[in-house]
Specification:
Elements: E1 6-14, E2 20-30, E3 40-44, E4 71-72, E5 77-78, E6 83-87, E7 108-109, E8 114-115, H1 125-138, E9 144-150, H2 152-163, E10 168-174, H3 187-195, H4 212-226, H5 229-235, H6 254-267, H7 272-283, H8 294-298, E11 304-310, H9 318-330, E12 335-340, H10 348-351, H11 357-365
Parallel strand pairs: 3-6, 3-9, 4-5, 9-10, 10-11, 11-12
Antiparallel strand pairs: 1-2, 2-6, 7-8
C-alpha cells in the first residue's frame, strides 16, 4: 500500500494558551472517502513518530508505517471499508525527516523572519486535537467512525472524545493514559540535558552548531524508559567477562556503547527545541484540567471506548487507564479495558499490533 504526504495550512490557529499561530501540518490517508464522507477514522501518532502510520511512500522503502500491521486492506482497521487519516503533530521532533511537515519552535516566526526557538507559544494535547479536527473539517468531514492512537496519539484522541463528544462514534487508546505523573517523567531530564549542552544557547542554535549532546542524552533516557526491564536486559546485554570497568571508573561498558550507538541513530532527524515542546505536551497532559476530577471529565464522553494497556509498560501507568475505563462506565458511558502482558513494555503498543488487532477489529465492527 503506497501513500503520499499532503499538507494542510491554516492562518490564525488559536492555541489553548490564547496565542495564535500560522498552522502548517502534514498528513496522509489510506483507503477511500465515500460520498457521504462518513467512513473516516482519525489516527494520531505517538511521541517520536509522525503521520506515517501505514504503507510505504515508495516501493524502495525498507519499512512501512508504524501501525502497518493494524491498518490496511482486510486488516483490523480495514481500508477497504474505512478512510483513514493521520496527521503530523504540532512540534513534531522529526523535523529533519523530509516527509514530516510540522509547525513548532523550528518554524520561522513571521514577525522576526527567524526560527521561533523557545519563543514559540506553549502547546497542549488539546491543541493537537483541535488542529487535526480542523484539518478533517476542511475536507468536509464533520464526523468520524473513530479516533484512535497509541501513547501520545491516544491522549490526543481522548481530548477529542471529551471536548468534542459528538465528533466520533468510538475512541481507542493504546498504551496511553488520562494524565501523567512524575514517575516516568522525562521533562526534567530534557531540560537538564539542554542546559548542559554548550551549543544549546537557550534554544537559539539554528544556523549554527546543534546541541547533539543534549539530543543524544534524551534519546538514551527515553530508550531506558520505553521497554521493560527484561527486554532491556536482552537489548543491552552485559558481558560478565569485561575487565576494564573493574579497573577504570571512566571505562565505557559494552552495553553503554550500544546505548550510545542507538541514541545517535535516533537523534539524527530530531530537534532539541522540538523535544522540549513535545515532552512538555506529553508530560503536561491531564484530561482533568478544567474539570473537578476524572469522573467530571469523562462523563462528557459519548464515544464507545476501548483502552488497551500493557502490564509491563513503565512509561504510561496502566492503572490510570483502567481507572479511566471504570470512571467512564461509572458515569454512564461505555468502556472496555484490555490488559496485555508483553516484555516490549510501552513499545508493545507500536510494535506488537498482533497482540491486540482482533480486539480492535471486533470493537470497530460491533
Amino acid at each position: 500500500m503506497l501513500t503520499k504526504k499532503e499538507i494542510f495550512e491554516y492562518s490564525g490557529f488559536k492555541l489553548e494558551c490564547g496565542k495564535e499561530i500560522s498552522l502548517k501540518i502534514g498528513y496522509e490517508t489510506y483507503g477511500t472517502l465515500n460520498e457521504k464522507k462518513d467512513n473516516c477514522i482519525l489516527v494520531s501518532h505517538y511521541f517520536t513518530a509522525s503521520s506515517h502510520a501505514a504503507g510505504y511512500y515508495t516501493e524502495k522503502d525498507e519499512l512501512p508505517g508504524y501501525w502497518d500491521g493494524l491498518i490496511g486492506p482486510g486488516k483490523a482497521v480495514d481500508t477497504d471499508k474505512y478512510f483513514v487519516l493521520s496527521c503530523d503533530n504540532l512540534c513534531n521532533i522529526q523535523i529533519k525527516d523530509p516527509y514530516v511537515v510540522t509547525t513548532g519552535p523550528a518554524s520561522v516566526d513571521p514577525e522576526t523572519g527567524k526560527p521561533y526557538g523557545l519563543t514559540f507559544p506553549a502547546v497542549s494535547t488539546k491543541d493537537l486535537a483541535n488542529s487535526q479536527v480542523l484539518l478533517l473539517k476542511s475536507l468536509g468531514i464533520e464526523h468520524v467512525k473513530a479516533v484512535m492512537g497509541p501513547s501520545l496519539g491516544g491522549m490526543v484522541a481522548m481530548q477529542i472524545a471529551i471536548h468534542m463528544p459528538d465528533f466520533a462514534d468510538k475512541f481507542i487508546g493504546v498504551v496511553t493514559a488520562p494524565y501523567n505523573y512524575i514517575g516516568p517523567s522525562f521533562q526534567y531530564a530534557v531540560w537538564d540535558a539542554a542546559k548542559n549542552d554548550p551549543n544549546f544557547n537557550n534554544g537559539d542554535y539554528y544556523g549554527g552548531e546543534e546541541p547533539k549532546y543534549a539530543i543524544e542524552t534524551v534519546c538514551k533516557n527515553l530508550m531506558l524508559t520505553i521497554y521493560s526491564a527484561d527486554y532491556l536486559e536482552k537489548l543491552f546485554e552485559r558481558d560478565p567477562n569485561e575487565e576494564e570497568p573493574y579497573h577504570d571508573v571512566f571505562a565505557v561498558t559494552c552495553f553503554e556503547k550500544k546505548l550510545a550507538y542507538i541514541a545517535k541513530l535516533m537523534a539524527a532527524n530530531m530537534d532539541m527545541n522540538s523535544w522540549i515542546y513535545a515532552s512538555h505536551i506529553t508530560m503536561n497532559h491531564d484530561i482533568r484540567h478544567g474539570f473537578k476530577d476524572l469522573d467530571d471529565a469523562v462523563k462528557n464522553i459519548k464515544a464507545k471506548t476501548l483502552l488497551i494497556s500493557n502490564r509491563q509498560d513503565n512509561l504510561e501507568n496502566w492503572h490510570s487507564s483502567e481507572r479511566m475505563a471504570q470512571a467512564i462506565n461509572r458515569t454512564g458511558g461505555s468502556a472496555e479495558f484490555v490488559l496485555l502482558d508483553d516484555e516490549l513494555g510501552h513499545m508493545t503498543g507500536m510494535m506488537r499490533t498482533d497482540l491486540f488487532a482482533e480486539e480492535v477489529k471486533d470493537f470497530l465492527n460491533n
